[in-house]
Write a structure and sequence with these properties.
Elements: H1 3-14, H2 20-30, H3 34-52, H4 62-69, H5 78-85, H6 87-109, E1 114-116, E2 124-126, E3 129-132, E4 137-139, E5 142-145, E6 148-151, E7 154-156, E8 159-162, E9 165-168, E10 173-174, E11 178-181, H7 184-201
Parallel strand pairs: 3-6, 4-7, 5-8, 6-9, 7-10, 8-11
Antiparallel strand pairs: 1-5, 2-3
Length: about 200
């Protein structure tokens, strides 16, 4: 134990606020440190002297002046009291705030074309355009971010376009849903749904 910790323990010890383990630690330190032992003895003498003084000998205004000189205790803000009373709700609210801020940040920063899907060898990329050529079949779900999805062939799954557009030829066939996400809130909902879907299926 360091001396600065021991001094704090000494004051709590005199106030009777230390646990048994803390008292044991303090006594162990005092046997090795003469300075802290002397500090404790001085405080004990002062405490005994104050207790021995008759109350009548103290000036009438002494109690009032001492009380005024003490720092005023600050009342905790209403929201901190609510947080202490509702820890689970507070944790859930904090989680939602962090998720929302991170999703919005990702939405603002992620402006490059990206493609996701299991069968990317059956697509052609030209600039910001992702093309499923005529006569080709893309197996699985295709996700295009920040670009144009032009489907001339078949998509054997869902087609999702984030912050972009979809061009479907008359020869195109989409087995699943076609979803276009243009707003950050929709994108966040899509991300949350995808995350919970992966969690549910263990992938």
């Amino acid at each position: 134990m360091k001396c600065n910790n021991a001094v704090a323990y000494i004051h709590d010890y005199l106030d009777g606020e230390l646990s048994r383990e803390q008292v044991k630690e303090l006594r162990s330190h005092l046997t090795e440190c003469a300075a802290c032992q002397g500090h404790l003895e001085a405080l004990e003498r002062t405490d005994a002297l104050v207790r021995a003084m008759p109350a009548a000998s103290a000036p009438a205004h002494m109690t009032e002046s001492i009380m005024k000189s003490l720092p005023k205790s600050r009342r905790p803000a209403a929201w901190t009291s609510w947080v202490r009373r509702h820890p689970a709700a507070s944790a859930a609210a904090m989680f939602l705030v962090v998720m929302l801020s991170s999703f919005v940040t990702m939405w603002n920063q992620d402006q490059e074309l990206s493609i996701a899907g299991p069968d990317l060898e059956h697509v052609v990329v030209e600039g910001n355009k992702v093309i499923v050529p005529a006569g080709q079949t893309f197996s699985g779900d295709l996700t295009v971010s920040n670009g144009v999805a032009q489907v001339l062939g078949d998509v054997d799954g869902n087609l999702t376009v984030i912050d972009g557009s979809v061009n479907l030829a008359s020869t195109a066939h989409i087995a699943g849903k076609v979803q276009t996400i243009d707003r950050a809130v929709d994108w966040m909902w899509y991300k949350v749904s995808s995350w919970f879907g992966k969690l549910a299926y263990g992938s």
